[in-house]
């Protein structure tokens, strides 16, 4: 059993020390830690380098990109370099509970059918940050049980952030030929593990998930054009999930029907927003259960009726 952690950093000097301290404090140490700084303009790389030297972390390796690659590419490069049987993904601004690695490796060791295990996270908010709308379950549900995630009416939505993931190394190799550079790393891994039927939630909060204005996933202003682009991205996810399942021989009739119905609903949303095809309104509303929240449905309707709205 060999455990890897990959950490992508960029201008994270304000919070990265807290994250590093929580990684060093893990009750089950990492066998390999790969840190890639994406050409920060602050002291992030120096803080990481100092931590490695001060604590004599001989199995921690820091690289600094000569130019900014963007966080999606930086994470993908790190994930490809990781050599662990289990690979943990790490952001620069959270705080991990000391037992996170030990607990998740323990589950993976006893559940060989799981390729991606995502623990619960406990969000905490800096001033000016956006509240999360839905994490598919509350902390009151966190009793340590394992829940399989199946392809359903919320199939194309990522329900946990990458910092909560423990990924089987062999699955990363399986996913690589299907990797889409336009997607976030956690979306690629979540979608394809879900497609395979090897995705599970670990209902135990093991990450303090910091929310602040500088988060890469921070909410942006929504326009009709941006909303339409998001729908097209979701359509590409449906296509990729179907392809991956078919290639692995695990595309059941039920799974195929669910994905086809999702594709038809997304097509209707795109027609409604892009061309104001009100004949699509009935299809969109009949599939309301596929929205993450009622707010999402209202956003579509407002952007359809008021073309220049910004939400």
Can you describe this structure in just a few lines?
The protein is α/β, with parallel strands linked by helices and 311 residues long. The protein has 10 helices and 9 strands.
Task: Outline the structure in words.
The chain has helices at residues 16-24, 44-54, 71-81, 100-110, 169-175, 185-196, 224-248, 253-275, 281-286, 294-305; strands at 3-9, 32-37, 60-64, 86-90, 95-96, 116-125, 146-148, 165-168, 199-211. It contains ten helices and nine strands. The chain is of the alpha/beta class and 311 residues long. It starts with a strand and ends in a 6-residue tail after the last helix.
Radius of gyration: 20 Å
The DSSP helix count reads: 10
Low-confidence stretches: 128-134
Mean pLDDT: 92
Give the helix/strand class.
alpha/beta
- The helix/strand series, from N terminus to C terminus, equals EHEHEHEEHEEEHHEHHHH
Report the major sheet.
9 strands, mixed
> What is the terminal separation in angstroms?
48 Å
Strand content: 15-25%
Oligomer category:
single chain
Query: What is the approximate shape?
Result: globular
Q: In percent, how helical is the residue content?
A: 40-55%
Record field, number of beta strands: 9
């Amino acid at each position: 059993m060999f455990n890897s952690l990959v950490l992508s950093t960029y201008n994270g000097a304000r919070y990265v020390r807290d994250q590093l301290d929580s990684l060093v404090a893990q009750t089950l140490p990492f066998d390999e830690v790969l840190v890639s700084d994406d050409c920060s303009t602050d002291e992030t790389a120096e803080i990481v380098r100092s931590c490695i030297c001060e604590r004599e972390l001989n199995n921690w390796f820091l690289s600094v990109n000569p130019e900014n690659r963007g966080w999606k590419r930086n994470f993908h490069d790190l994930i490809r370099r990781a050599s662990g049987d289990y690979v943990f993904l790490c952001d620069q601004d959270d705080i991990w509970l000391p037992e996170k690695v030990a607990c998740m490796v323990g589950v993976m060791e006893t559940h060989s059918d799981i390729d991606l295990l995502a623990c619960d996270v406990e969000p905490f908010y800096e001033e000016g940050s956006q509240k999360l709308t839905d994490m598919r379950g509350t902390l009151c549900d966190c009793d340590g049980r394992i829940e399989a995630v199946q392809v359903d009416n919320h199939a194309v939505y990522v329900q946990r952030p990458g910092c909560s993931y423990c990924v089987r190394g062999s699955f990363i190799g399986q996913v690589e030929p299907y990797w889409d550079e336009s997607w976030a790393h956690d979306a690629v891994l979540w979608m394809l593990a879900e497609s395979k039927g090897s995705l599970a939630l670990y209902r135990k909060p093991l990450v303090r998930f910091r929310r602040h204005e500088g988060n890469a996933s921070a909410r942006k202003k929504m326009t009709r054009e941006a909303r339409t682009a998001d729908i097209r991205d979701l359509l590409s996810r449906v296509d990729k999930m179907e392809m991956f399942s078919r290639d692995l021989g695990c595309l059941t009739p039920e799974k195929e029907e669910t994905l086809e119905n999702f594709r038809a609903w997304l097509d209707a949303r795109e027609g409604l927003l892009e061309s104001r095809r009100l004949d699509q309104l009935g299809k969109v509303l009949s599939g309301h259960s596929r929205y993450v929240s009622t707010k999402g449905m209202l956003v579509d309707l407002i952007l359809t009726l008021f073309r220049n709205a910004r939400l």
